[in-house]
Specification:
This protein has helices at residues 2-23, 176-180, 183-186, 201-209, 259-281, and strands spanning 26-32, 39-43, 60-65, 70-76, 80-81, 87-88, 110-114, 119-124, 133-138, 142-144, 148-149, 163-166, 169-173, 225-228, 231-236, 245-248, 251-254. By secondary structure, it is of the alpha+beta class. Bound molecules: 2-acetamido-2-deoxy-beta-D-glucopyranose (4 copies). This is Pathogenesis-related thaumatin-like protein 3.5.
Length: 282
């Protein structure tokens, strides 16, 4: 009788441990490595600080994305909000609210996610560029979990006809579609498919700064990623190659998926449950 109960307890605890491990809620770590404050905007933002908050230079913040979350994250720069969260920014405004209820105004660099099985993620410059961004998948089990985003800062290299300036500073770079509104730049009309919408002088400039980001609407092959079981680190103003770490299940994970580390972790779990079962059955 007592043994039966122990067996049941054992099965229950091991399934809880295993389930928790495989289900794996997605941890989002947002890091500001810019020299200035950034005000991330997130929509839908219910599980992300209400959709907007200030993030000081060098700070990071951690959220857990709900199952099935699909949304976008961008940065706002040069903001001025009053104590009630009313104000405006030089780039990325979502109306006048600190907490975003909808999308930001272009031009803004966007990180886009669809969490499913697998997750889809990308960084998009289709609506222009305001801050360097990278999306790094960590602890991914399979898929192409490459880092999406930028190595450099397009504000330093923006063609003058696309530049958004505040005084003498370039604060953002508009897309050619936004500025010239032609079918060629906007991938419309006869240019409305992946065969006829080709890279342009401007989109190539965007691509050179952000090699794994959408530089125009049909830039899919090198820009969209699919990854199973990962957590995500979204960094403002860091190159794709920089080392970054995040916490998941109280473990520090660095630099992309580490299969050997994962294996050691699973071995450890197995040993703990074995010891537990021996003790329970004794
Ligand atoms: C918010 O601030 C703007 C100026 O930035 C002002 O015009 C507007 O009236 C303010 N709205 C509220 C609700 O305080
Ligand atoms: C993953 O994506 C990167 C960047 O687009 C690409 O260079 C690489 O070949 C892809 N890897 C696989 C296995 O598809
Ligand atoms: C992390 O990756 C970068 C570039 O891919 C590399 O230079 C660095 O040495 C890596 N760090 C570790 C701890 O593996
Ligand atoms: C990967 O895991 C090994 C242990 O298996 C560890 O020594 C190494 O530091 C890990 N690398 C990273 C970048 O976390």
């Amino acid at each position: 009788m007592a043994t039966h109960i122990r067996v049941i307890i054992f099965i229950f605890t091991s399934s809880v441990i295993l389930l928790k491990h495989s289900e794996g809620a997605r941890i989002f770590t947002i890091v500001n490595q810019c020299n200035e404050m950034v005000w991330p905007g997130i929509t839908p933002g219910d599980n992300f600080g209400g959709g907007g908050f200030p993030l000081k230079s060098g700070q990071s913040i951690v959220f857990t994305a709900p199952v099935g979350w699909s949304g976008r994250i961008w940065g706002r720069s040069g903001c001025n909000f009053d104590s009630s969260g009313n104000g405006s920014c030089e780039t990325g405004n979502c109306g006048t609210n600190l907490k975003c209820a909808g999308s930001g105004e272009p031009p803004a660099t966007l990180a886009e996610f669809t969490l499913a099985n697998p997750d889809f993620y990308d960084v998009s410059l289709v609506d222009g560029f305001n801050l360097p961004m990278s999306v790094r998948a960590v602890n991914g089990v399979s898929g192409n979990c490459s880092t999406a985003g930028c190595d450099g800062d397009l504000r330093d290299d923006c063609p003058s006809e696309l530049a958004v300036k505040v005084g003498k500073r370039t604060v953002a770079c508009r897309s050619a579609c936004d500025v010239f509104n032609t079918d060629e730049y906007c991938c419309r009309g006869v240019h409305g498919n992946s065969m006829t919408c080709q890279p342009t002088y401007y989109s190539k400039k965007f691509k050179s700064v952000c090699p794994t980001a959408y530089s125009y609407a049909y830039d899919d092959p090198t820009s969209i990623f699919t990854c199973f079981g990962a957590d995500y680190i979204i960094t403002f103003c860091a190159g794709r190659k920089q080392t970054v770490c995040t916490y998941h299940d109280n473990r520090l994970i660095c630099n992309g998926s580490n299969r050997s580390f994962e294996f050691v972790h699973k071995l450890l779990l197995f040993m703990i449950s074995s010891i537990l079962s021996l003790w329970l059955l004794a």
